[in-house]
Write a structure and sequence with these properties.
about 15% strand, alpha/beta, three-stranded mixed β-sheet, two-stranded parallel ribbon
């Protein structure tokens, strides 16, 4: 997972549903390097208070690369909470190469985007993100973010994750 505002909601929903292992990746670690306790560590500590039996590993990196490639050998599913198109494209490429499905999510203003990507079946999101003009029309959070959007995207991502991880077919019209 990458870090965005809705990651807290997503993680709590997954833990409440019984997920017992999470890997959290902060690709913007360099922007918070001066802080005594990094945001990703605050999230881990908060989640461990909810359920101390959950195995949570954190990774900090300025740029995804070898560390993420190695991490992909240890996961069954990727949930993108980075809310950053370049990282989402990179996740898509790495997931497709490794055959790991992933869940895309992003939010800005009063809009959210979501898609379960069946990378293990050759599906890719790159064309959807770059070919349809979504990044240009999606906007930014500069004018604020409707906070209920975070709950919506977290619910969609966690529901899809639970369905996939419990081997139920996903039939959500995406």
């Amino acid at each position: 997972m990458g870090l965005a505002d809705y990651i807290i909601n997503t993680c709590h929903l997954l833990i409440d549903a019984g997920i017992r292992k999470l890997h959290l990746v902060d690709w913007d670690a360099n922007t918070i390097e001066q802080e005594e306790v990094k945001e990703i560590d605050k999230l881990r500590i908060s989640l461990e208070k909810v359920n101390p039996d959950v195995d949570i590993k954190t990774y900090k990196s300025e740029r995804p690369g070898k560390k993420l490639t190695k991490l992909l050998t240890e996961v069954d599913l990727i949930i993108d909470c980075s809310n950053h198109f370049p990282y989402s494209i990179l996740i898509d490429q790495m997931a497709k190469r490794s055959g790991i499905p992933w869940i895309y999510g992003a939010s800005a203003g009063a809009v959210c985007l979501y898609k379960f990507v069946n990378s293990h079946q050759g599906e890719s999101i790159s064309g959807w993100l770059t070919g349809s003009g979504i990044p240009a029309s999606f906007g930014t959070c500069s004018n604020g973010l409707l906070t209920t959007i975070n709950g919506i995207i977290a619910s969609l991502q966690s529901t899809s994750a639970i369905k996939y991880l419990t081997e139920k077919e996903i039939k959500i019209d995406q």
